[in-house]
Amino acid sequence: MNRVILFNKPFGVLSQFTDKGTEGSPRPTLSAYIDEKGFYPAGRLDRDSEGLMVLTDSGPLQARISHPKYKLPKTYWVQVEGTPDETALKALSGGVILKDGKTAPAKASLIPSPAELWVRDPPVRFRKSVPDAWLSITISEGRNRQVRRMTAHVGFPTLRLIRVQIGQWHLNKMQPGTWRFSTETGV
Asked: Would you please indicate which residues are annotated as catalytic (active-site) residues?
């Protein structure tokens, strides 16, 4: 039986168990939070992004979750600088042309500031003269820093990025740095 762990990755944590970087001091990794043996991340989440990571002890399941050919939807809450208009939302939904080609169509909509959101450490920079807004964006591919590049392309740079769902797995009310075994199949 495939086992699955759902983890709420905090800001600044690497989505791997060891730090292979060349920086002077070690950076926090998954091993600071998860001590179960034989689990591997199914996909990545950038160090400056937060939220849901799925880990599994099954190689085939790991491939189904992370490989682009399976097009497993991933939903993000995205705090952006400025307030996107209908033109920007349509562009995100239809796919935007990035340096590595056009993105697949996405679902993008304005949402209220998420009520169950935790305080980030360090906090997102705040500018009185520039409003911010929250979007929900669902993509089915996983290019490097894709959501950040998409919002920047339409003129609304990402301030904070939180993955809340992968397939049927959802972050729910998990707090940063916590994890649980999943009973859902997810894919």
From this structure: 46
